Amino acid sequence: MSASHAATVSHAPAEQPRLVNPIVPLGVGAAGILLTLVGAFMASSPEATTRVGYSWLIGMTFWTGLSIGILLLVQIHHIFDAGWSTIIRRTHEHWLAVFFPLALLFAPLVVLVWMHPGFIWKWTDIAQVGGDILYTKKSGFLSRGAFTGFTIAFFGVWIWLSYRLRKASFAQDVDGSADHTRANRVTAAYGIPATALSLTFAAFYWLMSLEYHWFSTMYGVWFFASCIRGALALTTLLCIYLVSRGILAGIFRKAHLLNLGNLMLAFTVFWAYITFSQYFLIWNANIPEETFWYNIRETGNWWNVGLILIFGHFLLPFLFFLQHPLKKKNGSMIFICTWILAIILLDFFYNILPAIKVDGAHGDPVNFHVTPWDVTALVGIGGVCFWAFFNSYAKQRCIPVRDPRIVESLHLHE
Amino acid sequence: MSNNTFGLVARFDSPAAVMHAAEEVRDAGYKHWDVITPFPIHGMDAAMGLRRSLVPRFTLVGGITGFTLGMLGIWYMNAFDYPLAVGGKPMFSPMFAFPVSYELTILLSAFGTIGGMFILNRLPMHYHPVLKYDKIERVTDDEFLIVVEARDPKFTPDGARKLFQKLGAKEISDLEN
After folding, report:
1. What is the ipTM of this complex?
2. From the first residue on, what is the mean pLDDT of each consecutive set of 10 residues in chain B (177 residues)?
3. Which of A139, A157, A226, A316 maximizes the CB count within 10 A of its CB?
4. What does the alpha-carbon distance between residue A91 and residue A73 come to, in Å, rounded to a whole number?
């Protein structure tokens, strides 16, 4: 790196007045959280209160999933010593500020497991499931202590890795040492397996155990596929927004947009492959403990939701991403990324909501429906995430100016 | 101009020079011409005014054929020609036909891609007039060629030569068929 380049980066971080004041998303987030709380306490029946709890779980799953995906993208960048994504990586690193707030926001669900056993996860009420052989055989794994300990450990892993990755990257802005790049590669080398294991078991504890009779070895990979797809869609939207505000204008180029689109094509197929495999194996083996999970999703309007997922989660994005010109236009990419985020949310509804039964026990699931508290929980948690993101953006640079591969990324061609 | 002339070839000594020259040749309205370089040059497609390759169309046709063949084949064999009940499953279901159809989709997409590439590049091609050019080995190392073919409707030996001279070609020669 030339002396003149080093001289240009020795100034204090440039002012970025064109970005949203972090107070705004924080205010929106706080309002959403408060409204959700009001919803929980004003609920007309215990069932309605439980439903608000599910709203919170869906919101937590959505935002935590996206954030895990971004954590993985940063580590994948480092482990492959990637060049092209260097300018995008800093936006990711700013987003990684979300894990501590997310951990705090998840805490109420853990507290409720102890204060109101069976509130969301039926198996946490030992009095109810203690006589069920299908529970007792799993009781070593599905215990409240293990649930609590592992949830703390999951967030611990994500917070620790985010802290390491952010710290080294920001330090490199100051001293320009390549040692930070190496340190982050080492972090990624152990961080990727640690993230993979933690997201898999998080999916088991938080989502799969909603139906504690059911089990699927594909579930962790399914959650991973959703995380990465959501992370890529969110990244694209954030970068297009930052370009429109002038922050990444001239830095985030068409070639970056195209690469993100190509990655999204890959993970669209990956998601379909994993999701189909899960269905296919269960369909083929035809074991009652497994098939009931899909059987209840063929009752009521869940059948239609399933069809929307096949065509909207796979076929539409697949055909879209096969079109090269569409992947280079901001407008079409904004459309498909918003679509993908919405359909991922629908997929989480599909995975989570049928755990609520009409009769409160083992009957048919409630139909697919959206309550105002789903919206407030989603906006509330999302607002806090955006607060953490913009807060970090205001304090550190928008690209890693002294990364050894920054020039390569700035000159990316198709 | 004899019938034995393939075209005119010009040699350049830097990627920037050949890129600029390609833009000028494109703007001069030539259709049958090519740039020969030792390595891919970013932005050359646009400089030459090339459209996107048609190979993906062949890939798509191959993929759709493979998927359809897989589904039809399994339906024909297991549900029509010799109905066979396995594991209490229906005679035909897209579920169990899917993995095979999916594999055939990939296989025939690959065939379509390779076949399309051969067809569009008119491969195999064992001889090309430019191989007669005496400094062709430099073009596999550090020099760059532009060839304008005589069959181009705009081609005149003088016109092309003047254009190349204006563009600063290092050497301009005729090419025989």
Report:
1. 0.84
2. 80 93 93 94 91 93 97 95 90 92 96 96 91 89 93 89 90 89
3. A226
4. 11
